[in-house]
Specification:
The structure is a single chain. By secondary structure, the protein is mainly beta. The chain has one domain: Nucleic acid-binding proteins (OB fold (Dihydrolipoamide Acetyltransferase, E2P)), CATH 2.40.50.140. It contains no helices and 5 strands. Strands 1-2-3-5-4 form a 5-stranded mixed β-barrel. β2 and β3 form a beta hairpin. Pfam families: Ribosomal_S17. One of the primary rRNA binding proteins, it binds specifically to the 5'-end of 16S ribosomal RNA. One of its GO terms (cellular component) is cytosolic small ribosomal subunit.
Length: about 80
């Protein structure tokens, strides 16, 4: 099965080799028919500490690296300040 890839914004990069990424998704509410935005935060493994707060990055699913880390940083998209 292919690994999931998501894009999100780095919320925190203070920990060593870890970036916390906020991923936003939109969907239509089944009853209200209104577009709803929902966000999740994921702990991603950042081997080279390249992530910077506010940066948009892609993360990929991987084998568990710690209690919370099940994602790894794949590529940087650009910076937003």
């Amino acid at each position: 099965m292919p690994k999931r890839i998501m894009k999100g914004v780095v919320v925190s990069a203070k920990q060593d080799k870890t970036a916390i990424v906020r991923v936003e998704r939109t969907f239509t509410h089944p009853m209200l028919k209104k577009i709803v935005r929902k966000t999740n935060k994921y702990h991603a493994h950042d081997e080279n500490n390249v992530a910077v707060e506010g940066q948009t990055i892609a993360i990929r699913e991987c084998a568990p690296k710690s209690k919370l880390k099940r994602w790894e940083v794949v590529a940087e998209e650009g910076t937003e300040a």
